[in-house]
Amino acid sequence: MKVLFAGTPAVAVPSLDRLLEAGFEVVGVLTRPDAPLGRKRVLTPSPVAQRAEELGLEVIKASRITPEVTDQIVATGADVGAIVAFGGLVPQSALDALEHGWINLHFSLLPAWRGAAPVQHALINGDDVLGASTFQLEAGLDTGPVFGTMTETARPDDTSGVVLERLAVSGAVLLAQTLSAIAAGRAEARPQEGTPTLAPKLTLEDGRLDWSQPALSLHRRARGVTPEPGAWTELDGQRFKIGSLALRPDVRDLAPGTLRLVGKSVVVGTGSHGLELLEVQPSGKRMMSARDWARGLAALEKVTFE
């Protein structure tokens, strides 16, 4: 089959590479337009655009799939669209334009966590099993019938960034297998079963840690929002970023938000037991070890997170 690949971030690149390795003819790549990055806001192609250009593939850049963009897609001669984190909706006219429609690789076990941030919400929720699904894209939000799934067990210190790196690779295999089955005429898509949950895009406020909450809940949230939008609290009215945390169930006499040096560890109180600060980033400074940060304070016991 001739494939039109649609994707934008780095997690989509392994799928593009895998389809080519599996022998599919990728006749074009659809990705979001160049975006300003860094302090100097330099216009930069998406990771998928950069990889496609390295491979010599035709690249279509669009923030929306307009009728004109649909015409460009059809002109590639594609039989099917393969989409991984494109970052935009595919209108019905474009869904109908390709013989086999569009196959979406989504990083959740549908119908769980439909939306833009499935892994992040799964970790915040404390899901023990993570995974990816391939499904037939429909006009609804991740509602189409599922072709296949793959699962893995969540690890205690997983962050959303680490999980997405793993699922990007294993999910790419699933996507290639699904397209191979469609090409061979033996693919079977089944309607989604179970109660849907939603995973909207995270905002900066989703990363704020409320120290009155239980330690386990805070640990899950911090891992779910890392690296983006990042975990944070307030100190002296300024945002104070939290790089990583560890559970300290042995420390139970600290009020929420107060800090103490326990041995050589910096521990903060929560609504249940302590959390050890491993990496922190004070406002205007680089990420550093919490121990180094604490050494620069006159009295750690006087510090309280808001």
Number of spatially distinct domains: 2
Q: How would you spell out the order of helices and strands?
A: EHEEEHEHEHEHEEHHEEEEEEH
Q: Under the CATH scheme, which class of the largest domain? A: Alpha Beta
CATH architectural type of the largest domain: 3-Layer(aba) Sandwich
Overall pLDDT metric: 96
Please explain how this structure is put together.
The protein has 306 residues and is an alpha/beta fold. It has two domains: 2-183, Rossmann fold (3-Layer(aba) Sandwich); 204-302, Formyl transferase, C-terminal domain (Methionyl-tRNA Fmet Formyltransferase, Chain A, domain 2), CATH 3.10.25.10. Helix content is 26%, strand content 27%. It has eight helices and 15 strands. It has helices at residues 13-21, 47-55, 67-75, 92-95, 118-125, 160-183, 215-224, 290-295, and strands at residues 2-7, 25-31, 35-37, 42-44, 59-61, 80-84, 102-106, 129-136, 146-153, 231-235, 238-248, 259-262, 265-268, 274-281, 288-289. The strands form three sheets. It has a seven-stranded mixed beta sheet with strand order 5-2-1-6-7-8-9, with helices on both faces. Strands 10, 11, 12, 13, 14 and 15 form a six-stranded antiparallel beta sheet that branches. β6 (80-84), α4 and β7 (102-106) form a beta-alpha-beta unit. α5 packs antiparallel against α7 (215-224). It starts with a strand and ends in an 11-residue tail after the last helix.
List keywords for this structure.
single chain, 6-stranded antiparallel sheet, 2 domains, Methionyl-tRNA Fmet Formyltransferase, Chain A, domain 2, Rossmann fold, 306 residues, alpha/beta
